[in-house]
Amino acid sequence: MSGFRRVGERVVHQGYIWKVVVADFEAPDGTPFVRDVVRSPGAVGVVPLIFDADGTPSVVLVRQWRPPLEQEIWEIPAGMRDVPGEPPEDTGHRELIEEVGYDASVMTLLTAMHPSAGMTDSVTHIFVANDLRQVGREVHGPEEEASTVGIFALADAVAMIESGEITDGKSIIGLLMVDRRLNARSSR
Asked: What is the Cα–Cα distance from 140 to 171, expressed in whole angstroms?
């Protein structure tokens, strides 16, 4: 064990989804210290994968306005785990339908990652979705209502990461993991 321990915390802001706490900790040598922490239910991201008749992979992305950045960005469909008790895979199915209008017969976990371990306890589960079928979008909120859905060759999406056009962390991780897995299969 690390020897660090949390000895208490107090809520300084309770928002719609997140809360900010001031947490009191103790170092292994007993030294007290304080940190601000964002408590989060976590999130889910999904890489929707489509293969054409030749077996070339494409992905479905959404371009939406993000209030903290005050700009539109391309990203994989994603959303908060804001339904208490809902398994991450179910959140992934829900967000896939809401944001891009697809459902998946197969949803496979790629990874669970900490998007910003120095400030939040959030965990983002990233899935790849296969065997997609169009079901129609069920958008929620002004950002989703104004969003754009696009289908890109996976190679083009990876190039968008390399050029800086895709900057979202969960999207970069998910797209690169899918690309790596597919390339590993094709090199066998």
From this structure: 20
- The 8 Å CB, 24+ separation contacts for 3-6 are 3/27, 3/28, 4/28
Q: Among all residues, which ones are annotated catalytic? A: 143
Average pLDDT score, the chain: 95
- Write the CA distances from 2 to 6, 27, 28, 82, integer angstroms: 12, 9, 7, 31
- Classify residue 64 as exposed, middle or buried by CB count within 10 Å of its CB (0-12, 13-18, 19+): buried
- pLDDT tens-digit profile of 16-28? 999 999 999 999 9
Residues in the chain: 188
Distance of CA 19 to the CA centre of its chain: 19
Which CATH superfamily does the domain covering 43-186 fall into? Nucleoside Triphosphate Pyrophosphohydrolase (3.90.79.10)
185 or 3: which carries more pLDDT confidence? 3
**Chain position carrying tokens 């589960």:** 125
**Structure confidence at residue 182 as a pLDDT band (50, 70, 90):** very high
Q: What is the C-alpha to C-alpha distance for residues 45 and 92, in angstroms, rounded to an integer?
A: 7
Report whether 73 contacts 166 (CB < 8 A).
yes
Domain residue spans in the chain? 5-39, 43-186
What's the N-to-C CA distance of the chain in angstroms?
A: 40
